[in-house]
Amino acid sequence: MVERNTGTRILAHAIMILGTLVVAFPIYLALVASTQTPQDFRQAPVPLWPGSNLWASYSAALTGGTSNLPVARMIWVSFVSTMVITFGKISISLLSAFAVVYFRFPLRKLCFWAIFITLMLPVEVRIGPTYQVVADLGLINTYAGLSVPLIASATATFLFRQFFLTVPDELVEAARVDGAGPMRFFKDILVPLSRTSIAALFVIQFIYGWNQYLWPLIAATSQDMYPIGVGLKQILGTGDAAPEWNVVMATAVLAMLPPAFVVVLMQKWFVKGLVDTEK
Amino acid sequence: MEKRVIFRSTWLPWVLLTPQLLIVAVFFFWPAGQALVQSLQQQDAFGSSVTWVGLDNFKALWNDSTYLASFQTTVVFSTLVTVLGLSCALMLAVFADRIVKGAMVYKTILILPYAVAPVVSGLLWAFMFSTSIGVIPWALRHVGFEWNHLLNSEHAMALVVMAAVWKQISYNFLFFLAGLNSIPKALIEAAAMDGAHPWRRFWTIQLPLLAPTTFFLFVINMVYAFFDTFAIVDSTTQGGPGKATSTLVYRVYFDGFRAMDYGGSAAQSVVLMAIVIALTVIQFRYVEKKVHY
């Protein structure tokens, strides 16, 4: 038996408490800062306890208040492009993984590699040329321009391929005996079986889409197409004037809420998906 | 691995693949090809004339001491982020693994940074360390330490590293925890019966058995630090002071979109792509090995 003495247990809890406090502190500070009045930020240190200005800070952020950059609109832009990325990626990946796993056709290996080479080449490294392509297609400041280039990656295809390979062959045989064609098999057997992987990918892609920054920074040039990350930076300003910290932090909290909500709510699937995708 | 039982159709797989192949072709291969072509060209300031310059853009990069400096910056930054991120996460995971009651609460808090956008993460840390109103510089001043990441390049680097490590700690923690969970309990118990203390067990059993996870996380963290930290740099130091925290990805953006040097930026993209491909090959090799044992 592994020893279970109180000493080591207290030590373990002490380290975990310390660790979680350090990790949670920046988030706590943002929450606190968003409840202060602008006057509270005149001198160091920033108050460490919640203030009374919560309502005013958040309504100023959401409606655009003094900065003329309404966060409500940014949340909408972020939400739409995130949904396009998430569902777009999941659907095209299901289809292509089905094709490479369940069919034999000429150039299959080539298609496979053409998709898989995108696996680790993020949009950041080919940012300039991608911008020119999107500009040539007239997609600057559109939802398609904000989302479709980010769909061009194979993470989801890779996960579905791995999962399909573990599906027993007997299921295909049974389906064939019953006279079901490939699409019938796909729709009635394979997709329902992939529910857990789909849920896991939903979480990962939602966070990926919501947290985009560099791509929207160049693909959205007009204010009403700023997603929340880019908008946040605009509200913060360029450093000439002191920013309204309570509004900035209220925006930051609003930007953190949806992905945090998704991660905590779908924790089980998310952890499974994360650990499985990267294998 | 291949399927034994398959469907037969000559056209259906192509229909299924079309959406993905189309998107990959238009938004991946086309831009990547463009980057290759542009890296061999030079455009004048108005974009009206283009000339072929061969490898001049690459030579210019090679001779640009600030570019080599950002290479060095990136390597220092990535190493710090990887080493610090992995060791903090490993320590937390080892202790979390020992805890039965309340583990869920710790875990839920520790995975939160994963949900935070890099730009927000950078902003939170910049706020905490703000030289005028930040809590930490204020506290440091009381113990006689003057923090100023706007002037001191080491402070700036420390700030960017902290924000980047914080953001990545959830990911590392989850993988280490999963790795620790997969170590058979019997091994630990046998060692405990032989009188090995927790410290000894960690070094002789847990750490060696975590080697595959550690190696995997090492590659992932390097890639993360190289490419996914643009938003953190942009929202904390914007590459400054001077070019002290200007990493390679930051340079690609800055030279291409602020300084409007398309050829130079494209050449930088090509260099970055080569680095990623090298890292990918290393990782694939490793993945293959892992599948076989």
| Biggest interface, chains and residue tallies | A-B, 105 and 105 residues
N-to-C SSE string of chain A, H for helix and E for strand? HHHHHHHHHHHHHH
Helix-strand topology string of chain B: HEEHHHHHHHHHHHH
Tally of helical runs of chain B: 13
Overview of this protein structure:
The complex is a heterodimer of chains A (about 280) and B (about 290). Chain A is mostly helical. Chain A has helices at about 5-35, 55-65, 70-100, 110-115, 125-135, 145-150, 155-165, 170-175, 180-195, 195-210, 215-220, 230-235, 245-265, 265-275. The longest helix of chain A has about 30 residues, at about 70-100. Chain A is globular. Helix content of chain B is about 75%, strand content about 0%. The radius of gyration of chain B is 24 Å and the shape is globular. Chain B has a two-stranded antiparallel ribbon. Chain B starts with 11 loop residues before the first helix and ends with a helix. Chain B has about 290 residues and is mostly helical. The model of chain B has no long low-confidence stretch (mean pLDDT about 85). Chain B folds into two domains: about 10-50, no CATH class; about 55-290, Orthogonal Bundle (MetI-like fold). In chain B, α3 (about 65-100) packs across α10 (about 210-225) and α12 (about 250-260) packs antiparallel against α13 (about 260-290). The chains are: A mainly alpha (about 280), B mainly alpha (about 290). Chains A and B meet through α1, α3, α4, α5 and α6 of A and α1, α3, α4, α5 and α6 of B.
